[in-house]
Specification:
Helix content: 25-40%
Distance between the termini: 53 Å
Radius of gyration: 23 Å
Oligomer: single chain
Number of helices: 14
Number of domains: 3
Length: about 475
């Protein structure tokens, strides 16, 4: 078997594994990944017969990949419980519901056709972080496999249990007219049923399963998908539009006027709404998110605290878990709801449900609610090229310079830096709530730059110019993907 084994080491990413199928990984490679994961699960659970939930998305080749993965898990001694065609959050839910030891979901989320991958987790509600991925890579590539004789069983109709769990806890009173867009991805057989079940009127858009993705990839950050949702929202005079990604763990939101609402602002509206009935709660947001959480009058009135944390769904999920936060919001559209609202993992449909509760309880249009938030001028995410082997060092040098500017009270656009956060690169904030962020991208040879000002567009641009000048002086920066 080893002669034709193919497994590109670069497929082991920071939080999951992704490859072009057959080019970068083949059947025997997937089987070895299963052996590596099975071995890792046994090490961490200290069990010789761990139970592992497995599911797959609707790509033409996902079932075949899953069967190779299961073969590897079984040969390492795992007892596989296969729940069939699934969303990632359905697999995460199954671990709680069936009290299993680990999960493995075959999906490449919103990546183009040809891609495959696996999302994995051992501790309930959490997925692999960089440490676990590094360990898995070493076990798999060194073939340090445990041997055993596991088996598999099929769990039939689990999708009904998952749907009913979300429906029964979340009935709404108001008939909200909702556009549900799934980009022909797997969410199409889940999201419309669940949102109808809680009491929405649903207008379906590309909800039939078609793994060729004939119109666009199911990705709520894809402008083609967002423009299509906006058009259908306006044509149908809908209250809200939701766009789900390929494996159902993210959602994008379009308001009643057809405008996209960035996830960090939706998060703030949800946090405000929840804070009324869940006083003294904690919320986690990633460092790319709006600064409005910090001084929000409603959150402050309800004694809620917001913690800014590392970008990346695995990092935010863990922080929500460790801090026992009520919810976490990531700018890319991953939302995390902890008990009593969810199990702590990212479920795009549960996120959409929380937006429906917001509309149901506030009895206002979503566009009116957004208008009530203080206006801010926010840059897009800008990524200047920086070599992988230099990007972290460049950020370290910038951190030293900015700390010095703060200590010496040097003014930028007539403001001194009031606060510095270095959990993920550096985010520095000024007296008026303006801020800038510089961090290394976790998956590309680039840096990530974001700036925001509640005061003026000019201040937002001046903070960017201040950052850009510092970066140009390093002589380690190439072109930006986009610039303000």
């Amino acid at each position: 078997m080893s002669e034709n084994l193919k497994i590109n080491p670069y497929g082991f990413r920071e939080y999951d594994a992704r490859w072009l199928y057959e080019k970068d990984i083949n059947g025997p490679g997937i089987e070895n990944l299963g052996k590596g994961l099975g071995t890792q699960i046994k090490i961490h659970t200290k069990k010789n017969d761990p139970r592992v939930i497995v599911g797959h998305d609707y790509r033409s080749y996902s079932d075949e990949i899953k069967s190779n993965l299961k073969k590897g898990l079984i040969s390492a001694g795992c007892y596989v419980e296969d729940i069939g065609l699934s969303l990632s959050p359905m697999v995460y839910f199954a671990q709680f519901h069936l009290n299993a030891d680990a999960v493995a979901m075959v999906t490449a989320s919103h990546n183009e056709n040809g891609w495959t991958g696996v999302k994995m987790g051992i501790k309930k509600g959490l997925t692999h972080a960089p440490e676990e991925m590094k360990e898995l890579k070493e076990i798999t590539l060194n073939k340090s496999f445990s041997k055993g004789e596991g088996n598999e069983k099929l769990i039939k109709n689990f999708s009904k249990i998952y749907k009913d769990d979300l429906i029964n806890k979340n009935k709404i009173k108001r008939k909200i007219r909702t556009v549900v867009a799934c980009g022909n991805g797997t969410a199409g057989i889940f999201a419309p049923d669940i949102l109808r079940g809680i009491g929405c009127e649903v207008i379906e858009l590309d909800c039939n399963l078609d793994w060729t993705f004939p119109k666009y990839n199911p990705n709520p950050e894809d402008l083609k998908m967002l423009h299509e949702i906006a058009r259908v929202v306006k044509e149908n005079n809908a209250d809200i539009g939701f766009g789900f990604d390929g494996d159902g763990d993210r959602v994008g939101v379009i308001d009643n006027n057809g405008n996209e609402i960035f996830s960090d602002k939706i998060g703030l509206l949800i946090a405000r709404n929840l804070s009324v009935s869940h006083k003294n709660s904690k919320f986690i947001v990633d460092v790319k998110s709006t600064g409005l959480y910090t001084n929000d009058e409603i959150l402050n009135k309800n004694n809620c605290e917001t913690i800014y944390w590392k970008t990346g769904h695995s990092h935010i999920k863990r922080k929500v878990h460790n801090e026992k936060a009520l919810a976490g919001f990531e700018k890319s559209g991953h939302f995390f709801f902890n008990k009593p609202l969810g199990y702590g993992y990212d479920d795009g449909i549960n996120s959409a449900i929380q937006v429906c509760h917001l509309l149901d309880q506030q009895n206002k249009k979503i566009s009116e609610m957004i208008k009530q938030l203080p206006k801010t001028f926010q840059s897009p995410t800008m990524a200047p090229y920086c070599k992988d082997n230099e990007k972290y060092k460049v950020v370290e040098e910038i951190i030293i310079q900015i700390k010095k500017i703060k200590d010496e009270k040097i003014k930028i656009d007539n403001q001194v830096i009031k606060e510095i956060l270095t959990v993920n690169g550096i985010r520095f904030s000024f007296e008026d709530g303006s801020w800038g962020l510089i961090r290394a991208s976790s998956n590309k040879p680039s840096l990530v730059i974001v700036t925001e000002s509640p005061t003026s567009n000019e201040r937002k641009i001046k903070i960017f110019k201040f950052i850009d000048e510092m970066l140009q002086q390093t002589e380690k920066i190439g072109d930006y993907d986009q610039k303000i």
